[in-house]
Design brief:
Blueprint (H helix, E strand, L loop, with lengths): L17 E18 L5 E19 L4 E7 L12 H13 L5 E7 L9 H17 L5 H9 L5 H6 L2 E5 L4 E4 L7 E7 L6 H12 L11 H9 L3 H7 L1 E2 L2 H7 L3 H10 L4 E4 L6 E5 L2 H14 L4 E7 L5 E2 L1
Parallel strand pairs: 1-8, 3-4
Antiparallel strand pairs: 1-2, 1-12, 2-4, 2-5, 5-6, 7-10, 7-11, 9-10
Bound molecules: cytidine-5'-monophosphate.
Length: 314
Amino acid sequence: TEAWRPDDDRPRGSLGPVRVKAPAKINLHLGVGPVRPDGFHELNTVYHAISIHDELTARRGDTLTLTMEGEGAGQLALDDSNLVIRAARALAGHAGVPAHARLHLRKRIPLAAGLAGGSADAAAALVACDALWGTGLSRDELAAIAATLGSDVPFLVHGGTALGTGRGEVVSPVLARPTTWHWVVAVADGGLSTPQVYAELDRLRGTATAPTPRGSADALLAALRQRDPRVLAEALGNDLQPAAVSLRPELAEVLKAGRAEGALAGIVSGSGPTCVFLAADGEDAERLAAGLTAAGVCRAAHPAHGPVPGARTS
Ligand code: C5P
């Protein structure tokens, strides 16, 4: 949909429905700095969007409503506290249009999994309502609204592979020759609360056995440029991993099982409890996913690839 201008007599926006796909994210490197005065931690992270998607459909309506199916249906409030509704209202407020839409979410990204599913849904709502309402904002304008909704939301507007700084909301795309990486995403039963995982890291950092940070975003970016999964495997690292494993000790077994099944490397995704494993290629990822499923250490293991684009109409 082209941007609408006041002198335009075309109908504004789309008659709908508008369908938007938004990807899950993993963090190839997640460097967590100290807590800031606002309670957030200073981050240095390399985000990577992968091929597990939620899908949001937006239709014209007289009010703002949200329905959902799939992962976590029935567990998620669909009222004003839902990030999708908050995103639609934030866009409407910014653009000065009424927040009228019937939104339907098909979720495949598990809840509270460390895959930023809620942030993906918020990014999808921004892109879908922008098209439905014809508000014609640029990706950077959408990302600015996204930053008010959550630390990971701007990245999910952009997608691909990107460096995240600040509390994660300052996103710079990584320009690299296109390479597809193959992953296995091992989903756990039950979620982990992101604030609790950050609090556990702060607690561990105050003890004698404080976990040592591993690697750097720069080293990770250098590894990506070599386009060799064995090199990338050595550079993956997540400062939140010791905290997630401390709260959920069985994650150590999942990581061990992945290595035993031939993964090049395995890390906890974001704040967990999902674990992601790097495979040499697509076939390897299929084999590894089957092996992890058979080992019975996780609820499900899905092959995926990345990078993929951020939230966009399909
Ligand atoms: O920004 P978002 O709503 O996704 O953050 C969820 C929670 O994760 C925050 O309330 C905070 O406890 C923690 N967090 C943090 N530092 C960050 C990002 C998130 O401590 N950089």
